[in-house]
Amino acid sequence: MSTTTFTHEFDTVSFQGKVSFSTGIFIDGKFSAGAKNTTIDVINPTNGKLIASIAEGTPADVDRAVQVARRTLELSWGLNVPGHQRGLLLHRLADLLEKHADEFAALEALDNGKTVFWAKVADIAISVDVLRYYAGWADKIHGQVIETSEDKLAYTRHEPFGVVGQIIPWNMPLMMMAWKIAPALATGNTIVLKPSEFTPLSALRMCALINEAGFPPGTVNVVVGYGNTVGRAMSEHMGIDKIAFTGSTLVGRKIMEAAAKSNLKNVTLELGGKSPNIVMNDADLEAAVNWASHGVFWNQGQICCAGSRIYVQSGIYDQFLRAFTKKVLSLKVGDPFAMESYQGPQVSQIHYDRIMGYIESGKQQGATVHLGGERYGTEGLWIQPTIFTDTTPDMRIVREEIFGPVSVVIKFEDEEDVVRQANDTLYGLAAAVFTKDITRGIQVAHKLQAGTVWVNCINQVHANVPFGGYKQSGVGRELGEYALSNYTNVKAVHVNLGHVI
Ligand SMILES: NC(=O)C1=CN([C@@H]2O[C@H](COP(=O)(O)OP(=O)(O)OC[C@H]3O[C@@H](n4cnc5c(N)ncnc54)[C@H](OP(=O)(O)O)[C@@H]3O)[C@@H](O)[C@H]2O)C=CC1
Ligand SMILES: CCCCCC/C=C/C(=O)O
Description:
Blueprint: E1 5-11, E2 16-22, E3 25-27, E4 30-32, E5 39-43, E6 50-55, H1 59-75, H2 83-99, H3 101-112, H4 116-137, E7 145-146, E8 152-160, E9 163-167, H5 173-186, E10 190-194, H6 201-213, E11 220-222, H7 227-236, E12 242-246, H8 249-261, E13 266-270, E14 276-279, H9 285-297, E15 309-313, H10 317-329, H11 349-364, E16 368-371, E17 386-389, H12 396-399, E18 406-412, H13 415-423, E19 430-434, H14 438-447, E20 452-455, E21 474-475, E22 488-496
Parallel strand pairs: 9-10, 9-12, 10-11, 12-13, 14-15, 14-19, 15-18, 17-18, 19-20
Antiparallel strand pairs: 1-2, 3-4, 5-6, 7-8, 8-22, 13-21, 16-17
Helix pairs in contact: 1-7, 2-4, 2-6, 3-4, 4-5, 9-10
Bound molecules: ligand 1 and the ligand CCCCCC/C=C/C(=O)O.
């Protein structure tokens, strides 16, 4: 069976050059066609044209990938490879990614529609940091010696789960791959990863770098395919010991069900959000406006922690809305390869339609379109950055994750009222509060039901700091030391030093 190849000649301000790599199913360090020998068309969101036809994975390919991952775990990875060696390989991968940063930024812009500028300074840079951070952990995975009695030695080992399945979304294709593979590899697991079929290119390019870095074949296996075939096969698989997922709460629930009905595999989920951003009367207005705009419009609004519900205290509401409107009007919407662009097209026609459906629902339910609310231009997948006002708490645009450039600005009177409204959601991924009174900022942060609270900033992540959700925004934490426990099983060992029964 022949494999497919992606070849593209980039001639842009940020990156010129020919990029060519295999787009097959990546198993055991080799690319091949999928079991059905079929392909998936990958579409450029900027112009609707075909970028590539890549090999389509199937449940049979998942089976093969799991077998290979299991064999690799037993023979050439896991605790067979000392931690410092696993760390060295992760460092090499980080170096290779950094070396190819411009190429990866261009690939992400082409495939996802995100701007090449932000792809480079956020997606690629954070991915490199995360790989390096977990490279540093690889030889520091310690258990404990636990005191029991003098005739006994009891200790714990933190062992890899084994074969882990990882399902990642299209909004940050490379960054989500890095967040998933880095802690899993540092702790000695082997991987079967499913990228989104909308944006598979950076993950496939990474496969070549994984080989070049020197990981044993079969350590990371990548099967691109559809959620209801490959994704489902992974979450139901009896040979996968753990599954990690980023995506919608709806699909997260299906994955947990499949895990429960199959082998009770360990599950971590990073799911949706409807994050509140609270601006108090005493906030630095200019800073709050700039952050609020970044909080909801960055990455075309396609970010799980977007601060899409902006609560502004009554004393500065009018002033804030004026300044926020001016700021949003200044955002440059356009070609993702133009260095001055801030907002590119939405990722796909289906997602564009979903967002436009939400905008329509806001209009139908009686909210005021304060700004935007229409397609940007006359063709393509661009949407005007949109501000709704005069909303009520029951409206869909206030309650549901839109995942697009759509904000609601809501007036509040006092702290108690805003904390109640902010927490009135089934989500709990993130929240932000803007105030010059740091004591108050911290007090409010402690009252908000969210896995991350930003004070006087928003949408900030760091490799060292955990990220994940309360309530229906997820299970477990990614990043930081906390993520290591997502990928290790604790074994207690009791050694008899003379105790007689
Ligand atoms: N938390 C986050 O970061 C993200 C949240 N979302 C939210 O989800 C909404 C829908 O976007 P969508 O792309 O459909 O996201 P989904 O959550 O539906 O999909 C995410 C990934 O899961 C896969 N998947 C789908 N069904 C299953 C299944 N039964 N078992 C295992 N995997 C499965 C998908 O494959 P396939 O594409 O083939 O369906 C995709 O690779 C967005 O509007 C947004 O609100 C989306 C992306 C990221
Ligand atoms: C600056 C980057 C913030 C990324 C936060 C994590 C988001 C994940 C997701 O939306 O899938």
